[in-house]
Amino acid sequence: MLTREMPTAPAEIAFSNTEMKILDAMVKDTTQIMSSSPLEKYTIKLAQLGGYMGNKNRQPPGNIVIWRGLRRLNEILVGWKMATEKCG
Questions:
Q1: Pick from 71, 66, 4: which is nearest to 37 by CA?
Q2: How far is it, in rounded angstroms, from Cα 24 to Cα 71?
């Protein structure tokens, strides 16, 4: 909803730097992503983790797709932190 209400807001308002690095590494940039504002760019990448296809009529991703993407991003983030930080 934040992307729809404030499309020109910076991506840092919703995503941490680590989350943005993960999304950049996991999701390939497409023309739709490259032509979007920073917040919309990372929201689309998050939605693609959840199964969003980015169809031709550019329907915005729905709540279920965003939820799936958030769940998957959280799992990847835990693994990322375990791999890059000392555990225990």
A1: 4
A2: 17
Cβ contact 54:30 at 8 Å:
yes
Residue 61: domain span: 2-84
- The number of distinct structural domains making up the chain is 1
**pLDDT (tens digit per residue) in 3-56:** 888 878 899 999 999 999 999 999 988 887 888 889 989 999 999 999 998 776
Which alpha helices (DSSP H) does the chain contain, by range? 2-5, 17-26, 31-34, 38-49, 63-84
CATH number (domain holding residue 54): 1.10.740.10
